[in-house]
Amino acid sequence: xxxxxxxxxxxxxxxxxxxxxxxxxxxxxxxxxxxxxxxxxxxxxxxxxxxxxxxxxxxxxxxxxxxxxxxxxxxxxxxxxxxxxxxxxxxxxxxxxxxxxxxxxxxxxxxxxxxxxxxxxxxxxxxxxxxxxxxxxxxxxxxxxxxxxxxxxxxxxxxxxxxxxxxxxxxxxxxxxxxxxxxxxxxxxxxxxxxxxxxxxxxx
Length: 204
What we know:
Elements: E1 18-19, E2 21-25, H1 29-40, E3 45-48, E4 59-62, H2 73-81, H3 85-97, E5 107-110, E6 118-121, H4 138-152, H5 161-164, E7 167-170, H6 182-197, E8 201-202
Parallel strand pairs: 1-8, 2-3, 2-7, 4-6, 4-7
Antiparallel strand pairs: 5-6
Protein name: Tail protein
Pfam families: Macro
Domain Macro: 32-204
């Protein structure tokens, strides 16, 4: 089984700044509306006003908790769709982080299905069901972790994450159980994208 390394790991990009194809997903209109503002000036980002499960992508983003439990919100849907993915996440969190993946870091694990082949776990909260405060920066930290993992991370076999994951789908980060306002989430995801991929080109 291949586990991805965390967002702090480094992988060479031959001097090029790359960016993935990112699909921002929303099943509710308020989030879809602010996602469109994020995508307007960022050509590698598109918006899907529907479920992540509608898409043919290489990876989906899980706005997880630090312990890898997938029992609520979109994570519960992932766990039902990919029966082994919760155990894969929890095993990776234990192996790589001693059982707790901090907010601001991310890892990638196989889903066990052909597509999407990968799930990127990026905690938006430490404990399951945590309500986030209005001034939280956790969506930014989670999004930045996902983008840095994509850009710099390597799989266990040495494959750069950006080679394995060409396109990924991202739901709202903290907008469900966490209670984050859609505008707050969108603004922070945009800031994280610009920080990591400012001046980015498409992959080679």
